[in-house]
Every structure is written in C-alpha cells, then in structure tokens.
Amino acid sequence: MADQTTGQPARPAQAQAQAEAVIAEHYGRLVRIAYLVLPPSPGRHRRVLTAHALAQRALPRARSAALPAQRGGRRAPGGSAAATGYPEVRLRVLRAALEAGRPLRRGALPRRAQLPGLLPQVWGLRVFPRAGGAEELALDQWLATLSGPGRAAYVLRALERLPADEVRRVLAEAGAADPAGALAEAGEADSDALLDSPEFDPCVLQVRPTDLLRRRRLGRAALAAVAAAAVAGTLLALPGGGWGADGAAAPLYARNSAAEQALDPALLTRAGATDWRTGSRTDFAAWPARGGRTGDTALLRRALAVWARPGASVHVSATPGTPSGPPMGPPQLLFAGEVDEAVVVLLYDGLRVVRYAEPRTGTAVAALDFARADAATADTATAVVLSRVDGNVRYLTAPWVRSVAVRDLLEPATAPAEVHLTDGVTAPVAGPALDRSCATWNALELASAAPTRLVTDLGELIPARLTSGPPGSPHEVAGATELGRWARTACLLPAVRAHGVRSVNSWTYAEQKLPEASGTAAWVCTRAETWRGAQDRVLAEFQAPGTGPGALVARAEGGPDCGSRRPRALAGVLWKSGGGHWYVLAAGSGQFASVTVGGAVHGTAPGHRIAVPARAGAQVELSGKLSDGSRVGVIR
After folding, report:
1. 320 has which bridge partners?
2. Is the peptide bond preceding residue 120 cis, with omega within 30 degrees of 0?
3. For 3, how many CA atoms within 13 A lie in the half-sphere containing its CB?
4. Nearest 5°: phi and psi at 177?
5. For site-directed labelling of 498, which of 6, 7, 209, 478 has its Cα 20 to 30 A away?
6. Which of 490, 536, 489, 495 lies closest to 509 in space, CA to CA?
7. Per DSSP, what are the bridge partners of residue 315?
8. In what order do the strands lie in the sheet with 609-614?
9. DSSP labels for 391-450?
10. What confidence score (pLDDT) does residue 247 get?
11. What confidence score (pLDDT) does residue 9 get?
C-alpha cells in the first residue's frame, strides 16, 4: 500500500494499520466479494464462514506489509481516506477466494486459503444469508455454473463496476490463468443489481440450530470415549497391566501357541489323494489339496495372515450367519493356484470354507470370502466357486465328481453341454442371468458314482443343491416331469440369492383341475434351506397349464412349512379363466380334509382343493382342516 501523501510504499507498520482501516470500513463489501467468488459446493454455512475468514486474512503480515504503491483503478465506494488501499485489500481477498475454490491435488501441500479458518467459528448453529426471490435464486444457480475466475470476473464487473480492461488486469494479478476467457464466461447478464440483494450478503444472516439429536448422540459418544480412555489409563497404571493376576489363564491371543500355529503354513492339514475313497467322511475334509501353488509357502502365509487380521485394503464378505474371525487352529488346504487373473487359496476349518484371492502381480489388495459349510455331506460338498469374471464362473469340484455339464433350467428338453474339467477345475461357465427378463438360468450337472446332482450358483462360494420331491425325502432332479417343473420355478431363485442357501427343494404338493375345462394346474412349494438352519425361505407357486414361469402366490421366511418338520402346504390364488370369469382357487397338501374360503366369497369343499366363483379384486381368507381336526392357515 502507498503512503497517502507521498505515493511511495508505506512502511510495514503503517501499511498494516492502513489495511486494517480498509478492512474495517469496507468489511461487508469484501466479505460479499469472497462469498460470491467461492464455490457453492460446501454449503451456505461453510461458505459464509470461509468468506469472513478470507476477508480477515487480507490483513498483511508485518514483514510483508510494504506492498507496491497505489495503482490505477476505481476507488472503493465512499471515497474515504481508507479507500486509498482498497484495491490492494480487494486483490488479496480475490486471490484467496480463487485459491480456496481450487481442488486439492494429490501429493501437493494445500495453500493457506484452502485450509479451514481458525476464526470465525460458530458452534451449535447454522448460519446463512436471508432468502431472496426467484430472480436471486436463478442468479445464484447461474453463478454456480461458472468457474471461479468466471465468478470473479462477474463480481468485478457487476458489483465493483470495473471496466473490462481493469477486470482483466485484476484477474491476472489474482492468479487467473485466462482473464479474457473468464470475462467472456461471465457474459453480459442483465441482473447486475441483484448482487446487492440480502441473498448475497453474508453479513446479514439467519440462524438455525444444528441437528439436535445427532449433537446429543455425539456428545454421549464423546463422554463414553473419555470414560473409556480414563478406565484404560487406570488399568494400565495397575500392577501387571490389568485388574490383577490372570491366574491360570493362557497368554493373550497374539502370544497363544494354538493361534500362532494357525498362521504357520507348514502346519496346514492336507487330505490324502485317496482319502475320499476310504474315509468315513465325504465332506470338504476329504478333499485333497489341488492347484499349482500348494507348495508356495509365501502365498499360504499371506493367506493365513490376511484371514487372521484383514487390513483396510482387504475386501471381506461372508454369507449370512457366517463368522469371519480367524481360524481356531491350523485349517485344511483345499486349493492354491492361479485362476484367470488372480491367485486363489481355498481353506477349510471344519466350519467355514474361506477363499483368499490376490492379483497375479502385487499383494497390496486382496479379497477374503467366507461361506458356512458345517454339516456338509457328499450331496452338498460338491463344488466351490474359484472365480467370477465377466459373468463367467470357475468351480473346483469334489474329487468324486467324474464329469460336469451345464444345463439351462429354462430349456428342459435341451441336452446339457459338457464342461471341460482339469484337476477338478472347470472351464469358465456362464453364471445364471440376473436380469428381470429371466431368459436363461444355468445349473451344473455333477456326475459321480451316485446319481447326478444338480447345483446352481446363488452368488456365494458354495453352489446350492437343487432337489425335487416331498419334504423329508427329496431326491436328485431327474426326468422330464421334474425338469419341466424346475423350468417354471427357476425364475424364483433370485428371491433366495445371497441368503446362505444350502439346498432348494421343489415339491409339487397338489394338482387341480381348473374350472370351465381349462386344464390341470400344479401347486408347487419351493423351500430354500440355509447352512445355518434358520431363516429358511418358502415360496408357494401356482403353475397354470402352459410352459411359462409360475405365479408366486405366497412366501414366508423362518417358518417350518414345506419342510421336514411340517411337511404340508396351503395356498390360494384369484384366477381368471379363458372365458373371462374369476375364481378363487386353493389347494393344500394331502393332510387336509377340507378347505374353506371366507371374506368376500364363501365356500367349503371336502378334500384338499377348492374352486369358488368370485369377482375381480375379491379379498378372501383361506383356511384348512387337517385330518386330525385342527384348523390351519395358508403359508405366511
């Protein structure tokens, strides 16, 4: 800043005093300039506080206060003595506002203007300028579309009334890369006078409280953290590092010998190549270790270490009800090798199958997937997913699987296609299509000495077994009739996807002749049982004559219907005949002695089927009487 009498640069102390006078006299205008130039993204509250902080920071430091002499340009409004240094202070505010609006660059130190201001601070309140009208809102939205230099050019031209040449000069001194482009971006708006509106005045503010409930929760959390820190400090100060002597307790987990053995790749258990032929167990414990890197000690050590303590760069997933903690002892190695673009390790600890995957190059990131596998048998321990890439799935099959074929469940008449098998690893197989069209649903046929098993991928490590038949005695899907039923049921499988499903059984519990000689419909109950033995899902389906997907008429979760503990089902549907007439149809399994319809229509029929004329949209209630005389409701 220049001395007002000589025009020479002022001494630092004098320049500081002069700058303070300018800021005090024109504080409102300087804050308004900063507010308008700042980007709107942080919100009005933060924008207001930042604008005030930038205006207050415009006071030069003592060692750098001797600024160049006064340049040309218009004086600040009011024309007072303090206005002599106004352009220099305005330039500092403008430069800081442009710097604050620039994005932070990775690896670069932030500038001072990009750091939150220490002052002013507002606690417990949200502040923002008064709301304007529709024109002010439109102008604010238009300013948000401009770049920082564009907003600065508009403010200098519209609020400061500077000519175009002066605007370009000030922008260049403020650090704008393209002053001419910024001025062109600002355009010739016809709403310059609106900048004087209270909408853009960060000194005339409204206040509102912050989120009171969230503030109370944070306060309680802070008190709890302080109390926990105090307790921890007290415990550390006690003799022995705790409440007292630990008696006969073993050392901490990190120093426990069993826990350390679980992390030693040399202690991994491995089944013999022929144990599955002679052993009493036919689950995952009988699988031999396969893959090209079963002897890679470094890889196995990484897999065990990540399992025990996954870092921030590890993506961890687990099927519902599956614990994701470390192994209780040395687990069993099932597979270690390269699969597609990853290196995969499969481990089994008696409760879970765990898949560790890392890129072929680099070990900074990894994936860890858990699937519950306790109580597995030869029927369910048939395959494990090794990788999923671009909708294709590779499986590691059980050692007793002789051949693999892929079958589209929606095309029961089409023969399955053979899948190449190498040391138990399948070629890539297209996974089930998950779009709403349900145009295809692939399943694997696994042939062995036992009947061929049918499994399908439900988005988890272990594919689900598909069966048919009554509860308590399901069997492998075989024959045109059962394949045809599954062709009409397969599109319901997304309803049980990623639910920790072990097996899905489809049971045709009733068939019913339709009114008006419309053919015979089938009533099918599909039950998806989980590995954890809870939250099994039940879906009741009405399959009218034809080949399309059946209609879902009832669903339940966690109930025993259609299972071995309650092998019965009852469901109903409002059906329209080809002649345009509506009927309430209901059917139960063979245990029902009669079925009753109540509500909008009434009727009772002996046996386990009923058809009652009705009207469109009729609301009814269904119940049935069992052969022992007890009355029960529908699946729900």
Report:
1. none
2. yes
3. 10
4. -70, -35
5. 478
6. 489
7. 367
8. 570-576, 582-588, 609-614
9. TEEEEEEPTT--EEEEEETT-TTSPPEEE-EETTEEPPEEPPP-STT----EEEEEESSS
10. 42
11. 52
d(CA 399, CA 379): 13
CA nearest 595: which of 557, 633, 540? 633
CB 456 within 8 A of CB 443: yes
Nearest to 363 by CA among 381, 347, 342: 342
pLDDT, one tens digit per residue, over 272-312 is 999 999 988 889 999 999 999 999 999 999 999 999 989 89
Angle, CA of 506, 510 and 514, to the nearest 5°: 125
Residue labelled with tokens 């062709």 = 487
**Half-sphere exposure at residue 142, Cβ-oriented, CA atoms within 13 angstroms:** 18
**Torsion sign over Cα 524, 525, 531, 536:** positive
DSSP annotation string for 74-92: PPPTT--GGGGGHHHHHHH
User: Where is 206: in which H helix or E strand?
Assistant: strand 205-209
List pLDDT tens digits, range 159-202: 888 888 898 899 888 888 888 888 888 777 566 667 777 777 88
Whole-number Å distance between alpha carbons of 45 and 125: 9
What is the pLDDT at residue 252?
A: 47
What tokens appear for 364 in the block? 């900074």
Contacts of 137 (CB under 8 A, 6+ apart): 199
Q: 């504080």: which residue's tokens? A: 27
**Element at 52 (helix H, strand E):** helix 44-57
C-beta separation of 353 from 461 below 8 A = yes
Look at residue 118 in the predicted model and tell me its pLDDT.
65
* Tokens linked to 220: 């309680």
Q: Which residue's entry shows tokens 């600002």?
A: 186
Q: Which tokens in the block code for residue 171?
A: 């922008």
State which residues of the chain have pLDDT below 70: 1-13, 15, 61-84, 104-119, 128, 132, 189-193, 234-256
Residues 90/28, Cβ–Cβ less than 8 Å? no
The three-point CA angle 105-110-112 to 5° equals 150
Q: Distance between the two ends of the chain, CA-based, in angstroms?
A: 82
Confidence at residue 10, expressed as pLDDT on a 0 to 100 scale = 54
What gap in Å lies between CA 262 and CA 184, rounded to an integer? 68
The per-residue pLDDT for range 480-510, each reduced to its tens digit, is 999 999 999 999 999 999 999 999 999 999 9
35-49: burial string, b at 16+ Cβ within 10 Å, e else:
bbbbbbeeebbebbb
CA distance 237 to 65: 53
Counting beta carbons within 10 angstroms of the beta carbon of residue 70, is it exposed (0 to 12), middle (13 to 18) or buried (19 or more)? buried
* Cβ-contact 556, 537 below 8 angstroms: yes
Do strands 366-372 and 383-389 pair parallel, antiparallel, or not at all (unpaired)?
unpaired
Give dist(CA 257, CA 77) in Å, integer.
80
* Cβ-based neighbours of 189, under 8 Å, separated by 6 or more: 139, 142, 154, 158
- Nearest to residue 433, comparing CAs of 376, 481, 513, 491? 491
What pLDDT shows up at residue 82?
42
How many Cα atoms occupy the beta-carbon half-sphere of 53 within 13 Å?
Answer: 21
The per-residue pLDDT for 100 is: 78
**What pLDDT was estimated at residue 74?**
45
Task: Give the pair of three-digit tokens for residue 128.
Answer: 């923002």
Distance CA 134, CA 293 (A): 69
Answer whether 0.85 is exceeded by the pTM: no
